[in-house]
Amino acid sequence: MTTYSEQLLPGPVEPLEAVAALVDSGLFDQYVVYERDNTWYVAGDPLGEVMVRPGTVQASYAETVEWSDTPWQALDAVLAQTPVEGWNAFGWACFELASDPARDGGEPLAQLMIPGTEVHISPAGIRVRYLDAARAGAVEAALALAARARQGHSRPVDVRTSDGTYEKAVALSVADIRAGRLDKVILSRVVEIPFAVDLCATYVAGRAGNTPARSFLLDLGAWRAAGFSPETVVEVRPCGLASTQPLAGTRALTGDAGLDEQLRNELCTDAKEVFEHATSVKLAFDELAGVGGFAATKVSEFLTVKARGSVQHLASRVETSLPPGVSGWSALGAVFPAVTASGIPKAAAYQLISELEDERRGLYSGTVLMAGSDGSLDAALVLRSVYQQGDRSWLRAGAGIVGESRPEREFEETCEKLASVAPFLIPIDNISGVAV
Questions:
Q1: Per-residue pLDDT, 107
Q2: Is the terminal CB of the chain with fewer CB neighbours within 10 Å at N or C?
Q3: Distance (Å, rounded) from C-alpha 362 to C-alpha 359?
Q4: Phi, psi at residue 82, to the nearest 5°?
Q5: What is the DSSP annotation of 207-245?
Q6: What are 255-304's pLDDT values in tens digits?
C-alpha cells in the first residue's frame, strides 16, 4: 500500500494568492480546488481516476463495477480499492446522475480523481501531501511566485435580457402545480458569456466578493468550472453524523443595511417563501431518515437567514446518525440532487425540467465534492458558478416555483442570483502580469 509523505510550509499565507499561484503555474494538467472551513484543498497529479457512466463505475486501478438503479454502492466499492493509504478523492457529479442516469452516449455522469499531490492551504500555513518528492519541490517553487499574481479587469455581462421564454415556463409550471402534478420545481435559465473567461482570475475575484458555504475551481477535462456554492448537499463526518443544508427562499442583498434588513424581514414573513422552504426541509428530513432512521434524524436549525454574496436565503439544517455499515455515499444518494435545485416530488420535477428547459443541466445543480478514506464526505451544491466546455462559457441560475409563484418575480430572483458571479467575470485577454 502506497503512503503519502508530508511537508509543512509555515504561514502566514494569503490563501487565494497561493491557489492562483499553483493553478497558474501550469504545474497540474488537471486539478480540483475545494474550499471548506477556511481551508483550500488543491488536488493534482491524479494517481487514479474514477468515472461513473450509465451502468458502470470504472477506475484506472480497479475492476469495473456495474450498477443499475443507483451508483453509490458501486462507487464506494471501487474507492475502497484505492491503492494508497489515507486517500482523499475530489471530483464532481452531474444533475443527470439521478434525474436521467440511463442517457445515451455513455458520457460521464461523475468523475473523481485520487491526487498524487495534495496541497492544504490555510491562513496559518500550507501542508503538502505527495507521493513523488520532486513534486513537493515543484509545489514550493510555484508557491514562491504567489506575490506575482496577475491582475484582471472584469467585463460586465447582461443577465436581464429576456425573450419571455423563462417567464412562460414558470407560468406553465404554476399551472401544473395547481393542477396537482407536483408541489415544487426549480426552473433554470442559461446566460451565454460572449468571451473566453479566465476561470482562475474569475474565481479569485469572485471569492473575494462572495460569502459561500463552499467554493471550488476545477479542470478535469470533461468540465471546467468555478463556483461559490451557497449550501452543501451533504456533510458526513468520520463518526457517521450526516447533515444536509437546504436553502430555499430568496431576497437580494443590496449593501444598504436598512434596505437589506427590510428585505430580510419580508423574506421571513412571506408566505410563499416560507412554504417553499418548509416543504424542502420536510423532504430533506424524510430522505435522511430513510438512511439513518426517524429516531436518529432531527432538524437542528430552522428558518435562519444566510447571506450568500448577492442574495440572502432562508436556511435550515437536517442531520442524522448513520447506522453501522452505511456509508456517506448512501447519505449522498438519499438527498442527491438537492431538493432546493430539483423539486417535490423529485421524479415529477425531473420530468417537468426536461420538458421546459432547453438543454441538459450537467454540472449545474449537481455537486463538487471531496471524500476521504476515513468515511468523511463533503458535497457542495453547484450553483452560483461559471461553466466551460470547449470554447463555450456560460452562467446558469434558477428559482423555486410553487403554486403562488409569479413569473416576473421568479425571473428577478434568477437575476439576483446571477449577480453573485456576473460582476466578477474576467476575460482571458484582459489579464496582465503586474505584480501586486
A1: 83
A2: N
A3: 9
A4: -60, 125
A5: HHT---SEEEEEE-SS-EEEEEESSEEEEE-TTSEEEE-
A6: 999 999 999 999 999 999 999 999 999 999 999 999 999 999 999 999 99
Helix or strand or coil: residue 333?
helix
Q: Cβ contacts of residue 198 below 8 Å, gap of 6+?
A: 152, 426, 427, 428, 430, 431
CB 96 within 8 A of CB 362: yes
Task: List for the chain the helix, strand, coil content (%; round to 5).
Answer: 30, 35, 30
Predicted local distance difference test score (pLDDT) of residue 101: 82
In contact, 78 and 65? CB cutoff 8 Å: yes
In sequence order, what are the beta bridge partners of 49? 113
41 neighbors 34 (Cβ within 8 angstroms): yes
Out of 231, 273, 276, 410, the active site residue is: 231
Virtual CA dihedral for 324, 283, 88, 380, nearest 10 degrees?
-160
Does the pTM exceed 0.85? Answer: yes
167 is catalytic: no
Contacts 24+ apart (CB under 8 A), 407-412: 407/166, 407/167, 407/168, 407/170, 407/171, 407/174, 408/167, 410/166, 410/167, 410/170, 410/187, 411/162, 411/166, 411/167, 411/170
Task: Please state, in angstroms and rounded to a whole number, the distance separating the CA atoms of residues 216 and 225.
Answer: 8
- Note whether 402 and 278 are within 8 A (CB): no
Helices (H) and strands (E) in the chain, counts: 11, 23
Helix 271-292 × helix 328-335 angle, to 10°: 150
Q: Distance (Å, rounded) from C-alpha 10 to C-alpha 185? A: 48
Residue 80's pLDDT is 94
CB 154 within 8 A of CB 426: yes
Grid cell in block for residue 384: 452560483
User: If you write DSSP's letter for every residue of 169-215 in order, what string do you get?
Assistant: HHHHHHHHHHTTS-SEEEEEEEEE-SS-B-HHHHHHHHHHT---SEE
pLDDT at position 105 is 63
Q: Mean pLDDT of successive 10-residue segments in the chain (436 residues)?
A: 92 93 95 97 95 94 92 95 96 95 78 98 96 95 73 87 96 98 97 96 95 97 95 97 94 92 94 93 97 96 93 95 96 96 96 96 98 98 97 97 96 96 90 39
Instruction: Please state, in angstroms and rounded to a whole number, the distance separating the CA atoms of residues 82 and 90.
Output: 13
Domain 155-195+244-359+389-432 sits in CATH at 3.60.120.10
